[in-house]
Amino acid sequence: MLLSSVDTACRRAETSSEVGVPPGRWRLARGGHSLLIDKRDLVVTLLLLLGLLAASAAYLALGSVTLGPGELLAGLIGGGDPMAVFLVQELRLPRLVAAWLTGAAFAVAGCLMQTLARNRLATPGIIGIDNGATAFAVASVVGLGVSLAPPAMALAGAATAAALTFGLASGGDTRGYRFIVAGIGVGAVFGAVTQLLLARVAIDTANAAYPWTVGTLNARSGQAVTVLAIGLAVGLPLALALARSLNLMRFSDAVASGLGVMLRRRRWQVLSLSVLLTGLAVAVAGPVGLVGLVGPEIARSLASRRGVPILASALAGALVMVLADLAGRLLLAPIELPVGIVTAIVGGPWLLWILLRPAAKSLA
C-alpha cells in the first residue's frame, strides 16, 4: 500500500511538471500541440493596437476640414456627404494605410537589426541603409528619369549599403561598434552622393527629388504602397518565425550554436529581411529612419524581456508614424511638415537619451 501511494504521488508530480505553466504565461493546448502566451506581451500588444486604432480615427477626422464621428463613419462606408466621402476615402485613408505600412516596416527592420547586432543603435537609418536607398532613388529621378521606378532603385540602394556595411565590418561581423562606425561611414558617403546629385541638376528636377530626401507620405506611389503591403505580409510572419533564433542569438555565439542556431544562415536571413523591409518602406515614404529606433524602443520598454518584440515593434512603429504625420499636418496648418522632419525632431532627443544615460543596458 505504501509503495502504491508513493508511485501514485510520483506519477502526479510528473504529470504536474509536464503541464506546469511558467509564471506570467498562459498555455493553450490542443491535440498534441501546445502554445505558451506571455500575458504581459499580450496586454501590451492589445494596448498598442487600441492606441493605433484611436490615432487612426483622429488621423481620419482631423485636418483642414474636421469631421464628426457620424460624418467619419459615413465617409468610411461610402455614404453621407460626398465631400466627407472624398476626404476620407480618397485623401486620408490611403495616406493612413501608407503610414501604417511604412511605420511597421521601419520598426520591424529596426528591431531585427538591433537584435542581430546586439546594439540599440544598429537601426537601418543609423547604419546607412536608409541613405543608400535614398541615394539610388534620387539618382533614378535626377539622372535616369522617374519612369525607371525609384522604388526598385531604393531597394537596390538599401541592398548595396547593407553589403558595404557588412563587408567593411570585418567580413560580415555584426557585433560591436565597428559595425556601427562602418554603417555611419557608408551612410555619410551615400548622403554626400545624394547632395551632389541634387546640386548638379535644374531646380525643377531637384524639387521632384526632394520628397525622397526628407521623408514624406504626401508624394507616395500607389504601386509602391501595394508592393510594400505584399512585402510586409510576407516579411512579418518570417520575422515572427525567426524570433526564437533571434532570442537565442542575444547570447554568445558559442551558446547560440550549442542550442542549435545556425548563426551564419540566420544572420543573412535577418539581414536580407531587414534590407527588404527598409527598401520597400523608403520606396513609399523616403528616409524616415528614426522610426526604426523609436518603435522598437517603445515596444521593448513595455513588453517582457523574455523574447524579441516583433509584433509590438510593428504596432509601435505604425503608431509613431501615424502620430508624426498627423502632427505634421496640423501643427503649422495650412503649411504641412514632412513626416521625416517631425520624427527627426522627436527621435533626435531620444537618440541622445540612449547615448548619454549612464545605465544603458545591452540587448544581450
How is this structure best described in words?
By secondary structure, the chain is mainly alpha-helical. The protein has one domain (38-356): ABC transporter involved in vitamin B12 uptake, BtuC. It is 72% helix and 3% strand. The protein has 16 helices and 2 strands. The chain has helices at 2-19, 39-61, 69-77, 82-117, 129-144, 150-168, 177-199, 203-209, 211-214, 222-241, 243-249, 253-258, 263-285, 291-302, 310-330, 339-356; strands spanning 25-30, 33-38. β1 (25-30) and β2 (33-38) form a beta hairpin.
Using brief descriptors, characterize the structure shown:
364 residues; mainly alpha; ABC transporter involved in vitamin B12 uptake, BtuC; two-stranded antiparallel ribbon; 72% helix; 3% strand
